[in-house]
Each structure stands twice: as C-alpha cells, then as structure tokens.
Amino acid sequence: MRIHRVEALPVEASFATIFGGEAKVPQALRIPAAHFRRIPRRGQFSTVVRITAEDGGIGWGEAFGLPTPGATAAMITDVIAPALAGAALEAPQAMLTDLRSYFISMGHVGGPAMEALSGVDIALWDLQARRAGVPLATLLGATPGPVATYASPVGFQPTPEESAAVARGLIGEGFRALKIKVGRGPAIDATHVAAVRGAVGQEVTLMTDANCGYSRDDAIAAAREFAASGVAWLEEPLRPDDHAGSAEVRRASPIPIAGGENEFTVEACARLAAAGAVDIVQPNIARIGGVSGLLAVGAMCARNGLRLAPHGVGTCIGVSAALHACRAAEGFLTYEANRLLNPLRDTMGAHGMRLDDGRLVAQDLPGHGGEPDPDQFARWRPPAHA
Predict the structure, then answer these.
(1) Do 321 and 291 meet the contact criterion of CB atoms below 8 Å apart?
(2) Which tens digits make up the pLDDT trace of 83-101?
(3) pLDDT given at position 258
C-alpha cells in the first residue's frame, strides 16, 4: 500500500473570536506565563496533518503550530508532501529518515521543519494502527488505558489567593497533581506557591514552571524557596539553550530540574542529559519527531537514569497520540494535561478526552482515537484555508 496524499490543514481558535473582541480576553489568558509578558498569547493554533492511503485509509497527525501554523504547513505542503507522494507504507521512522537528514543538513535542526516531520510521523502511526484495526498503544507493544497525569497551569494570577482558587478548581475537576507558573521573581513566586500548597494540601503533587523566566541566581533562590512547599520539580528555569546554566542550577537545587519542551530532536535531548542539565525530560510529541521521537527520548531517559514527562500542549490529535505513546514509553513518569482554554483540544475531537481517577486515558479505539469531528474541524479552520 502506498501514500496517496499528505495534507497540512491549519486550525486556529483565537481568543478574540471566542470572547467577542480583543478587549474582552481575560488577562490571565493573554499572559499566562513568563514568556508571554512581551508578546501576549492570541489563542490556540496548530497544523493538522491528514495522510490518505491509496485504499482511502486515513491517518491524523499534528505539527506544533504556536505561535502561528503557517510555517509548519508550508514545510509539509511544499517539501514533505511531494517527497512522500506514492511512497510505500513502512515503519514511519524509516519513511522519514531521508527527509530528516535533508532538513538537518540544511541547518533546520529545530523549528517548523522538525515540527512538520513530527506531525507526519504521528499521522503515519495513526494510519497504520487504524489499518490494523488496533489502538496505537497496541501497535507499539503496550495496551490502551489510563496514564499518570498532572493538570497545568495555575497561570499568572494577580494575588496568591487567586492562584489558590484556580488550583482548587483543578483539583475539583478530578486531578491529583498540578503545576503553577512562576518566573516573576523568587519572593513573589514563593508566596503564590505556598498559597497553592496550603489550598490543595500535602497529598497533591505540586510542580512549578518558570518558562525561562529566571536568571541563574534567581532560579537557585526560587528552587530553595519552593522546596519548603514540597515542590516536585522546577521546570525550564533558564533559556533552553543555556545547558551550562541549567546544570549549575541543578547542582545547587534541592528539588529536581525539568526541561525539554523546546527541543526538537532526540540528539538535543541527549545533549541535555550529557550536560547534567535536567532530571526530567519533557518533549512535545508534535515537535520532537512524533511518536517515533517521543519513544526514542524515553529510551534515552532510561539509559541515562532520567524520567520522561511529556509536554501536554496540543489539540485532540497530539494529546491522544501522546497518551498512547506514554503507555509504551520507557522511563515514563507523568503527562501534562494542559487546561488553558483550548477548543481545538476539548471540542474538536470526535471522541473527547476521558479522565479516570485523575488520569487521562489512552482510549481503546483504532489508532490514537483523536481524529477530529468533521463539523468541529470545519468550525476551526481559518477562512483562508477552509
């Protein structure tokens, strides 16, 4: 069986559209974390990948689309789709080896090229599992079922009391672990973290995420402050490319350091490990090489005594694929259930997400089970691409 067509289909859910005007968008959505303080977030964006086989079988994938899906869509439409047209179906990683080598040799070791390949890899895995009539987890040698999960984020709130209220809401949804955004400075952040801890109790696992908002000294100070609240990790304290700095923070920190959502290759994650920069690696399936890349990072974690905790930002497609991959991945610790307003995740899917005893579920459906509902999919297609 051969590939008939590879399509890149941008989707977007702008906050201005959802709330009826830019001025009506809540500040906590526009600036939910440290890296949006200068360039506020406008909404949810992604590039859906649809691969059709000669017999009409379909596989769905997702290429990371923030802050805009145009670049990944162009890589797929102009480069990847022509290269795969008529290709025989085989193992997804083998099908994409030449394209991956081509992009890397051209200097595209990160960004839209790697994100585009990730979306295509996910779609190829989904196509093959659906053709076999089995869940993706089964094709990967595991089984569908619940996945250890934490909720995110408790975003930037004006007061510690408001942070505590958001945290209580997440626990009220059924989650038993959650993450709070930090990066405003150790003293301010520590008051919010302590308030959240007081609100949810000691039995709830609590993480923190700085989104690259600290200096080295502030990161070390913050980690020491957060330890008093029993925080499980400090995520991305510094810029993603400052491996030496992250290693310094890790050596001085009384709590584990996490990172990796902004890496694009298994080799890049291996460099994080070699630098001693992290305890926990957090790849996003829609930018790390898809299902193949996430599993490879998990194997790297297992070899190096690290844990895998994938980043959870994405649509129903990327999240569903990640859950199935987590069931099969080595070194797996927990998965992020991002709760920032996102209809592309919560209402676009044909089947919807399932939460079971605080854990998201890799569902017992053919493929990853995250394929879009046709009507909802059409709703979130931008007019220029509909």
Answers:
(1) yes
(2) 999 999 999 999 999 999 9
(3) 98
Nearest to 177 by CA among 312, 336, 321, 326: 336
Same domain? For 116 and 198 the reply is: no
- Sites in the chain below the pLDDT cut of 50: none
* Start-end of H helices in the chain: 15-19, 27-30, 70-75, 81-84, 92-105, 112-132, 136-139, 160-172, 186-200, 216-227, 243-252, 266-274, 290-304, 316-328, 343-346, 374-379
383: in domain: no
Sign of the C-alpha dihedral computed for residues 55, 56, 60 and 61 taken in this order: positive
342 and 249 belong to one structural domain: yes
**For 58, phi and psi rounded to 5 degrees?**
-125, 140
Output the six-digit token pair for 53.
């086989």
List the structure tokens of 27: 């500040």
pLDDT at 34: 82
pLDDT at 385: 58
Rounded CA gap, 227 and 163, in Å?
A: 18
User: How many domains does the structure of the chain reveal?
Assistant: 2
Q: What is the C-alpha to C-alpha distance for residues 208 and 183, in angstroms, rounded to an integer?
A: 9
What pairs with residue 60 in β-bridges? 50
**What's the rounded Cα separation, in Å, for the pair 113 and 133?**
30
User: What are φ and ψ of residue 200, in 5° steps?
Assistant: -100, -15
Q: Do 261 and 359 belong together in one domain?
A: yes
Does a structural domain hold residue 379?
no
d(CA 214, CA 87): 47
Report yes or no on 251 lying in a domain. yes
Q: What is the pLDDT of residue 386?
A: 55
Kindly report, residue by residue over 342-364, the tens digit of the pLDDT. Answer: 999 999 999 999 999 999 999 99
Write the DSSP symbol of residue 173. T
pTM over the 0.85 mark: yes
Pick from 293, 290, 258: which is nearest to 272 by CA?
258
Domain that holds residue 214: 145-374
Q: Say whether both 127 and 273 belong to one domain.
A: no
- Is 218 inside any structural domain? yes
